[in-house]
């Protein structure tokens, strides 16, 4: 009771909530941000490099949670053309993950390719573009673009080139790669069908005597069929994949775009 | 009794705990919006053969309180586009002021009166997407989801959405909030694809939207039976801001069991 | 050269109300080789005489694409022009990124106008020593603008700047009425004829010293118009046009029309 009448609250009486009263400890720890800047918009992408072509593919569904926001939202973008309609582009970027980051990444890479062309008077090679994309991603190492990117085109020798990335810019050139929601469903299928993993010459023996099936590049039609099969499989087993299949085939003659229907359920 | 006048009327620390500076301060880290406060519910829109129809009710809620029952959430831009706002109302009003500024600047840039060369709905959507995406990058989001309706550069009907994270997409019909679960399935029956939408007449589109507003009023507890409806055509925007939901039938309510006091 | 007390900087007026530094900058424009621009209802063309410093050197470029819908012709200090060109390129890219459309030509020209004006009102700064003709298309159709080091910009039907450009302007004034309804080929020929007027006695247009650039809107089959991107033609690509305005070719312009069309493919 004496404490209540204390003239010296700092000694032993009650303190009052003055703005300047010293705070002993954070009341319930640091206050946390409730805003989550990321969402996952689902969908899946896929790329296969051939001897003289590259196939890029992605479904066109855009989801958030269990909702389908759009049945036609492309994940494939032509990069580095001279005009806005990208008629003369030779490189394709696919992005899957957080759609807004994907859009921002695409526009940034495209602007850089356009500046490159303006400064050097020639288009960027896929190799240079691939390296630049890695730098762009790594620049945001501590607030990453939440996207799995795949870059496709033809290399200096005219061979198909596929570069795949993680969200912070690690990248490598590969024969094929699946990205996004159904990557774990499609990639093993690709390993088996493109790189002939776990396929052996019949009757070549057992154990160390087993001979792997010889790898040879796919033809374009084989590749396209593989892509369609891969996505039909993914649609069946993954709810975030479906609606439409967008394919871009890059050859020395340019980029051909193919749209095929997928199940809408 | 503490005789220091500063202490009068102040909460005592031994009762309420020490004052938490983070709630009210002028210095220190800047506080961004943590959560929407006064909110508007769904906005819905559907494309038809010569334009787009959009609707939203006139309610601004404070949590579960129907706080402001006469708030207009559809906004006309340059007589050629309509923006529908759901989510935080103060952020909507901020965007509204910003868009007014933008439209004045745009009118100065292009003083010709033929209405050509103005920002169209596609341009506007791109701009708003950039704007909201930048605010999310700054961790200071504008807590809204917007629908933008009008025409694109090829003079075709245009409808798109953008949200507080800058995610944007287009579709023949769009709905925000509860509408994406309640209204979107109904609208997709009439406009599943762009081709279907291009066959709809204006009357059909308006009818579908009104039907959806009714369903939303039946089932969305944060909705109101007074709403705004806008029709965007090449000629301009026809906006009605004080419509009343008609022909409601609550007969279905009798069949709903398990929530109330009924025993059978 | 003539000197006075009022030309040491660009912030001091002479008692007659002149700013000499700005006037000298305008003189620099007249040192550059001549460029001509003409706009019709459907196209805007730029044509230019390129100069080589000596027999062994290459020819200095005169026409530069800025964005897909706009480009410039320069007369004066090329390095100053590059600064402006880079600035315009950045602005167009930025505008495209934020609004997804071509930057309106007048907006772009106003920006370099304001930028150049600053240099005429700040102590220690130097006006740009270059004049520009800006040709572009936007929603209002083709445009031609003149830009001067003073920061003055003005929309033109046809104009010429650079050395001996008065002769070209006289030609343009004489043919003013014809331009509005000219097609692309006709417009280029008018441009080249104006250019010829400005040539010194024993010089003539060659594929080495002539540059042509075109931008325009094309009527589509469905009645809508589509911008035709800004394109610069040099070397062999301009030979047909040069021949079509050669003194002995005047008699048979119809044949030349066919030749000119081939270049476009």
TrEMBL record, chain A:
| Subcellular location, record wording | Nucleus
Cross-referenced PROSITE patterns: PROTEASOME_BETA_2 (PS51476)
Q: What is the lineage of its organism?
A: Eukaryota, Fungi, Dikarya, Ascomycota, Pezizomycotina
Swiss-Prot/TrEMBL keywords: Cytoplasm, Nucleus, Proteasome
Q: What is this protein called?
A: Proteasome component C5
- Main subcellular location of this protein, as a coarse class: nucleus
Output the InterPro entries linked to this UniProt entry: Ntn_hydrolases_N, Proteasome_sua/b, Proteasome_suB-type
Q: Which Pfam families does the annotation name?
A: Proteasome (PF00227)
Instruction: Tell me which Gene Ontology terms the entry assigns under biological process.
Output: proteolysis involved in protein catabolic process
Instruction: Give the domain of life.
Output: Eukaryota
One GO cellular component, as annotated: cytoplasm
Check the record and name the Gene3D superfamilies matching this protein.
Answer: Glutamine Phosphoribosylpyrophosphate, subunit 1, domain 1 (3.60.20.10)
Automatic annotation (TrEMBL), chain B:
Report keywords, A-Z.
Cytoplasm, Nucleus, Proteasome
Keyword Nucleus assigned to the entry: answer is yes
Residues folding into a coiled coil are: none
PROSITE patterns according to UniProt: PROTEASOME_BETA_1 (PS00854), PROTEASOME_BETA_2 (PS51476)
Gene3D superfamilies for this protein: Glutamine Phosphoribosylpyrophosphate, subunit 1, domain 1
Keyword Nucleotidyltransferase listed? The answer is no
> Which cell locations does it reside in?
Cytoplasm; Nucleus
Q: Which Gene Ontology terms describe the biological processes this protein takes part in?
A: proteolysis involved in protein catabolic process
Q: Which GO terms describe its cellular component?
A: cytoplasm; nucleus; proteasome core complex, beta-subunit complex
Entry-linked CDD domains: proteasome_beta_type_4
Q: Which family does it belong to?
A: Belongs to the peptidase T1B family.
Q: Name the job this protein performs.
A: Non-catalytic component of the proteasome.
Protein name stated in the entry: Proteasome subunit beta
Q: What is the lineage of its organism?
A: Eukaryota, Fungi, Dikarya, Ascomycota, Pezizomycotina
Automatic annotation (TrEMBL), chain C:
**Pfam families per the record?**
Proteasome (PF00227), Proteasome_A_N (PF10584)
Which segments constitute the Proteasome alpha-type subunits domain? 6-28
- List UniProt keywords, sorted A-Z: Cytoplasm, Nucleus, Proteasome
Q: Which GO terms describe its biological process?
A: ubiquitin-dependent protein catabolic process
| UniProt-listed CDD domains | proteasome_alpha_type_1
Cellular localization per UniProt: Cytoplasm; Nucleus
Claim: Nucleus is one of the keywords in the record: yes
List the GO cellular component terms: cytoplasm; nucleus; proteasome core complex, alpha-subunit complex
Annotated Gene3D superfamilies = Glutamine Phosphoribosylpyrophosphate, subunit 1, domain 1
Member of which family? Belongs to the peptidase T1A family.
According to the record's subunit comment, the protein's assembly and interactions are: The 26S proteasome consists of a 20S proteasome core and two 19S regulatory subunits.
Matching entries from PANTHER family are given as: PROTEASOME SUBUNIT ALPHA/BETA
The entry's protein name is Proteasome subunit alpha type
């Amino acid at each position: 009771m004496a404490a209540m009448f204390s003239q010296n609250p700092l000694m032993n009486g009650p303190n009052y909530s003055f703005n300047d009263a010293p705070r002993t400890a954070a009341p319930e720890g640091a206050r946390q941000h409730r805003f989550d800047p990321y969402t996952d918009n689902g969908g899946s992408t896929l790329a296969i490099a051939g001897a003289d072509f590259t196939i890029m593919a992605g479904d066109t569904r855009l989801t958030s949670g269990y909702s389908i926001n759009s049945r036609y939202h492309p994940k494939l973008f032509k990069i580095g053309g001279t005009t806005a309609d990208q008629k003369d582009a030779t490189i394709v970027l696919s992005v899957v993950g957080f759609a807004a980051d994907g859009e921002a990444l695409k526009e940034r890479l495209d602007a850089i390719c356009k500046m490159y062309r303006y400064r050097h008077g020639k288009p960027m090679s896929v190799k240079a573009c691939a390296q630049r994309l890695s730098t762009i991603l790594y620049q945001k190492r501590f607030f990453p673009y939440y996207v799995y990117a795949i870059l496709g085109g033809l290399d200096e020798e005219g061979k198909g080139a596929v570069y795949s990335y993680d969200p912070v810019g690690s990248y490598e050139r590969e024969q094929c790669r699946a990205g996004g929601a159904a990557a774990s469903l499609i990639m093993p299928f690709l390993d088996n069908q493109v790189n002939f993993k776990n396929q052996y010459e019949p009757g070549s023996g057992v154990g160390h005597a087993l001979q792997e099936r010889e790898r040879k590049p796919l033809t374009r039609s084989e590749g396209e069929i593989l892509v369609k099969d891969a996505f039909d499989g993914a649609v069946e087993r993954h709810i975030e994949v479906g609606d439409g299949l967008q394919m871009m085939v890059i050859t020395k003659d340019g980029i051909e775009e193919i749209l095929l229907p997928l199940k809408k359920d | 009794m503490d005789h220091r006048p500063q202490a009068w009327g102040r909460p005592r620390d031994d009762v309420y705990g020490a004052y938490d500076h983070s709630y009210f301060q002028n210095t220190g880290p800047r506080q961004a919006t943590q959560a929407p406060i006064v909110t508007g519910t769904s906005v819905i829109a559907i494309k038809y053969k010569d334009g787009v129809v959009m609707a939203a009710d006139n309610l601004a809620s404070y949590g579960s309180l129907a706080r402001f029952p006469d708030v207009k959430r559809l906004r006309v831009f340059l007589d050629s586009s309509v923006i529908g706002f759901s989510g935080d109302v103060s952020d909507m009003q901020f965007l509204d002021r910003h868009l007014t500024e933008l439209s004045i600047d745009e009118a100065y840039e292009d003083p010709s009166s033929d209405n050509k060369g103005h920002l169209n709905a596609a341009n506007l959507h791109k701009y708003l997407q950039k704007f909201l995406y930048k605010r999310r990058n700054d961790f200071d989001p504008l807590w809204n989801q917007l629908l933008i309706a009008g025409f694109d550069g090829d003079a075709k009907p245009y409808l798109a959405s953008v949200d507080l994270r800058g995610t944007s997409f287009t579709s023949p019909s769009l709905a925000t909030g509860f509408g994406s679960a309640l209204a979107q399935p109904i609208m997709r029956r009439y406009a599943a694809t762009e081709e279907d939408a291009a066959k709809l007449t204006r009357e059909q589109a308006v009818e579908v939207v009104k039907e959806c507003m009714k369903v939303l009023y039946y089932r969305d507890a944060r909705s109101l039976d007074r709403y705004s409806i806008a029709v965007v055509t090449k000629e301009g925007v026809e906006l009605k801001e004080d419509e009343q939901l008609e022909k409601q039938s609550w007969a279905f309510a009798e069949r709903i069991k398990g929530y109330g006091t009924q025993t059978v | 050269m003539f000197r006075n007390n009022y030309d040491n900087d660009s912030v001091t007026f002479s008692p007659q109300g002149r700013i000499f530094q700005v006037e000298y900058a305008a003189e620099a424009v007249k040192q550059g080789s001549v460029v001509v621009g003409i706009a019709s209802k459907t196209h805007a063309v730029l044509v230019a005489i390129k100069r080589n410093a000596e027999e062994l050197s290459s020819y200095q470029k005169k026409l530069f694409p800025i964005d897909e819908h706009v480009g410039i012709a320069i007369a004066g200090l090329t390095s100053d022009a590059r600064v402006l060109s880079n600035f315009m390129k950045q602005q167009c890219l930025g505008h495209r990124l934020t609004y997804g459309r071509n930057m309106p030509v007048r907006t772009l020209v106003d920006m370099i106008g304001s930028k150049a004006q600053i240099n005429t009102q700040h102590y220690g700064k130097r006006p740009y020593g270059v004049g520009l003709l800006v040709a572009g298309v936007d929603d209002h159709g083709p445009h031609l603008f003149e830009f001067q080091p003073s920061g003055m910009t003005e929309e033109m039907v046809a104009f010429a700047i650079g050395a001996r450009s008065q002769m070209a302007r006289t030609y343009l004034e004489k043919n003013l009425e014809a331009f509005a309804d000219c097609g692309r080929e006709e417009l280029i020929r008018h441009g080249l004829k104006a250019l010829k007027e400005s040539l010194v006695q024993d010089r003539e247009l060659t594929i080495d010293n002539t540059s042509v650039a075109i931008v325009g809107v094309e009527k589509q089959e469905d009645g809508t118009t589509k911008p035709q991107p800004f394109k610069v033609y040099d070397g062999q690509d301009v030979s047909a046009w040069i021949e079509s305005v050669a003194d002995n070719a005047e008699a048979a312009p119809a044949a030349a029309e066919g030749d000119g069309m081939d270049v476009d493919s």
